[in-house]
């Protein structure tokens, strides 16, 4: 209990002679330094909020305006056209208010007004410029003069070094599409998937909705778009994520993987030390807004609001809806190892612990021989099962006493760390099995060794490999991807390791050891834990996962075909799915809408009439390779158009979703919306972004390519496919499905994907012949 005594700043004893005070100078010093650190953070946040609030204006810009205005007065040239003297006349006279002082103050007020007007004008102009999306629809490599002038103007108005949130106020709002446009695009997206009778019924429902309910619902939606920052995001977060009552493990959470080939150190504690320190360096940059905003083509800023909740965030279970707890700061980490929970302080003397000190703390946990307390080992299964039992158990058994203190420690931690007992990672000798096991471990683990409610759980394995499991409601995968790229690059290329595999530097052995969390879990609560574990275990065992490398070619060869790599892969997925199931289905591809304020995602319905025509041509022995190639180009062109429409706010599904939410609020029954929102996505796909922050060159460091990440199947009889285009010569696929479905087989679908990729590439190599179906 040495750490408990060190945490006490003073002690006192009542004796017959009086009260004896004993002050702990070291504890008081720690309190003082922590207070200084806290106030520094507050000052930095205040300074950044001011600088962000007036961006693209700067204090030096204000000073230049003031000096120029003051100089003009001394030269007897009134650039204010009499406004300065007008202001001066309205200032009080007498006392210290001499003529000179009043003139100086009126000059300051006038200069500030001019400067603020300039800032507002620049912001408004930039917002109008960022509302222009014509550049996205221009042919690749043929940029118009209009777009070049537009890009140059945006760069000038964006400033030279914007902070992370500097351009947030200049981002345009997500526009509400016209109902008739959305209906038309929807009907076009399902025409080739329905027979004539079913399509006729759907078209009737759609046209009736367009004429009857839609105008009223649209008015409310437009009103919301005027009032709110984004007419979709808050409802999307609440109704798609937080109101879900089923398990979030597998169904909602997703994962990211370590380097595919490289393992910087085989020492588990050392890798955890460097990784945690790298993540905290990222958090510090985030707090100070030192990260540059992500820019499309280096010109168009992406919305950064999702990054605010990366750290210090937990999903809190509720009976009818969950909520998100986000703290401005957290100074500790929650750690799980062999069924035991620990609290690790991240600061000492007001300073962030270094990697070697963190390694020491984690090694102390690994060396701890103590056993789990009753009910402690599988406690986290509550976060993996259904939400209502977890909400009830939390209120009943964790509302007071040591359980409340321990749970607060986890929920208020910066993030969650699991020091896993297993060894995972890519093994060339067991390629398929090793990556499959790695993926399943990160997706669900043992169902009780990840805290699925935390914004993310960092998992470090016995052999030094690592990954993370992320909760989905607070942000989308590109946000975790940005963090992950920074962490991996900082770990390997900036912090590094010494020759023995340990973190750099010398540890401070005087650090108080990690604190075991104490629990008092009654038998009734353990029964709830067991029930949640049974639900989660059944769900995890049903996941059929296949993660594999496609090494025949990568982005380089696809670009030589003058085709978008994403369109190439999406069409290959359509071909693979048709060969796998002999049918087409609604296909979900996630695209982002972060060019708009608080934008998240939109759906690209990538199973198009053009892609199905191409797939059928590949199955038709009488269609020539040149005809197949032409149909492929048409399908790729259509896919790129749909992707651009989705990114620019002209998608289908988010608009229909919001119209449905409005209809529920108003008590309006719409058979059309009910039908649309009940349609299953039997093929759900997503591309993992790569090199969002270029901290190292993949060409010179090919062993440090990322494995990407993945997610569980969306439909019980469907597939979930994630892919990362990692460099010029590698694409990694993550395929999920359910073992309980007789229609799916992840390995079989993986083989079909590989063959489809090769067959499409062969059309460009040898257009005179067609590959075997």
From TrEMBL:
Keywords: Acyltransferase, Fatty acid metabolism, Lipid metabolism, Membrane, Mitochondrion, Mitochondrion outer membrane, Transferase, Transmembrane, Transmembrane helix, Transport. Its EC number is 2.3.1.21. InterPro entries: Carn_acyl_trans, CAT-like_dom_sf, Cho/carn_acyl_trans, Cho/carn_acyl_trans_2, CPT_N. The active site is at residue 472. It comes from the Eukaryota. It is a multi-pass membrane protein. It is found in: Mitochondrion outer membrane. Residues 1-47 form the Carnitine O-palmitoyltransferase N-terminal domain. Belongs to the carnitine/choline acetyltransferase family. Catalyzes the transfer of the acyl group of long-chain fatty acid-CoA conjugates onto carnitine, an essential step for the mitochondrial uptake of long-chain fatty acids and their subsequent beta-oxidation in the mitochondrion. This is Carnitine O-palmitoyltransferase 1, muscle isoform. It comes from Eublepharis macularius (Leopard gecko).
């Amino acid at each position: 209990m040495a750490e408990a005594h060190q945490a006490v700043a003073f002690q006192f004893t009542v004796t017959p002679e009086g009260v004896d005070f004993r002050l702990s100078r070291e504890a008081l010093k720690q309190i003082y330094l922590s207070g200084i650190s806290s106030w520094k953070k507050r000052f930095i946040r205040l300074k950044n909020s001011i600088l962000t609030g007036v961006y693209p204006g700067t204090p030096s810009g204000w000073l230049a305006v003031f000096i120029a205005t003051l100089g003009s007065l001394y030269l007897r040239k009134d650039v204010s056209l009499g406004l300065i003297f007008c202001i001066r006349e309205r200032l009080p006279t007498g006392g210290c208010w001499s003529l000179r002082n009043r003139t100086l103050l009126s000059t300051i007020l006038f200069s500030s007004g001019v400067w603020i007007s300039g800032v507002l004008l620049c912001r408004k102009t930039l917002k109008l410029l960022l509302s222009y999306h014509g550049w996205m629809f221009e042919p690749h490599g043929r940029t118009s003069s209009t777009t070049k002038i537009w890009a140059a103007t945006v760069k000038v108005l964006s400033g030279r070094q914007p902070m992370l949130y500097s351009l947030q106020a200049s981002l345009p709002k997500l526009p509400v599409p016209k109902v008739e446009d959305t209906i038309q695009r929807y009907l076009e997206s399902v025409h080739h998937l329905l027979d004539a009778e079913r399509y006729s019924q759907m078209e009737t429902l759609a046209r009736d909705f367009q004429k009857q309910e839609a105008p009223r619902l649209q008015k409310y939606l437009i009103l919301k778009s005027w009032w709110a920052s984004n007419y979709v995001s808050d409802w999307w977060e609440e109704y798609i994520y937080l109101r879900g009552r089923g398990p979030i493990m597998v169904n909602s959470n997703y994962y990211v993987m370590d380097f595919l080939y490289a393992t910087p150190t085989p020492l588990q504690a050392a890798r955890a030390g460097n990784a945690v320190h790298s993540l905290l360096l990222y958090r510090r940059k985030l707090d100070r807004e030192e990260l540059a905003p992500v820019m499309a083509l280096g010109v168009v800023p992406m919305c950064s609001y999702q990054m605010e909740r990366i750290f210090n965030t937990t999903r809190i279970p509720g009976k009818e809806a969950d909520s998100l707890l986000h703290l401005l700061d957290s100074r500790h980490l929650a750690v799980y190892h062999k069924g035991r929970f620990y609290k690790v302080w991240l600061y000492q003397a007001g300073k962030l612990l270094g990697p070697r000190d963190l390694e020491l703390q984690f090694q102390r946990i690994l060396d701890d021989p103590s056993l789990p307390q009753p009910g402690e080992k599988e406690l986290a299964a509550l976060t993996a099962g259904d939400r209502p039992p977890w909400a009830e158990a939390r209120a009943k058994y964790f509302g007071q006493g040591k359980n409340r203190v321990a749970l607060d420690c986890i929920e208020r931690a910066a993030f969650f760390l699991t020091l896993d007992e297993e060894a995972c990672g890519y093994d060339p000798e067991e390629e398929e099995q090793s990556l499959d096991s790695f993926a399943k471990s990160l997706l669900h683990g043992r169902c009780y060794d990840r805290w699925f409610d935390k914004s993310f759980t960092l998992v470090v394995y016995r052999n030094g490999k690592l990954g993370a499991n992320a909760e989905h409601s607070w942000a989308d995968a590109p946000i975790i991807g940005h963090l992950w790229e920074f962490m991996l690059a900082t770990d390997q290329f900036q912090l590094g390791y010494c020759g023995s595999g340990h973190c750099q530097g010398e540890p401070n052995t005087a650090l108080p050891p990690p604190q075991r969390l104490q629990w008092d879990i009654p038998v009734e609560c353990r029964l709830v834990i067991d029930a949640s574990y049974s639900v989660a275990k059944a769900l995890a065992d049903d996941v059929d996962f296949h993660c594999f490398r496609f090494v025949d070619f990568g982005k380089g060869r696809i670009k030589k075909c003058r085709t978008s790599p994403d369109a190439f892969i999406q069409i290959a997925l359509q071909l693979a799915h048709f060969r796998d199931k002999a049918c087409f289905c609604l296909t979900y591809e996630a695209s982002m809408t972060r060019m708009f304020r608080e934008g998240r995602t939109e759906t690209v319905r990538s199973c198009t009439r053009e892609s199905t025509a191409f797939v059928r041509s590949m199955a038709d022995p009488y269609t020539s390779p040149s005809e197949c190639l032409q149909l492929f180009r048409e399908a790729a062109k259509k896919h790129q158009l749909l992707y651009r429409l989705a990114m620019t706010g002209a998608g289908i599904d988010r608009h229909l979703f919001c119209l449905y939410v409005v209809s529920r609020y108003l008590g309006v029954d719409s058979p059309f919306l009910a039908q649309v929102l009940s349609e299953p996505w039997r093929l759900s796909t997503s591309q993992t972004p790569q090199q969002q922050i270029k901290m190292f060159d993949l060409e010179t460091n090919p062993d440090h390519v990322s494995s990407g990440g993945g997610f569980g199947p969306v439909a019980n009889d469907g597939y979930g496919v994630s892919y990362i285009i990692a460099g010029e010569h590698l694409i990694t696929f993550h395929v999920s499905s359910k073992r309980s479905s007789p229609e799916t087989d992840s390995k079989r679908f993986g083989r079909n994907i590989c063959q489809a990729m090769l067959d499409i590439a062969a059309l460009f190599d040898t257009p005179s012949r067609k590959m075997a179906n």
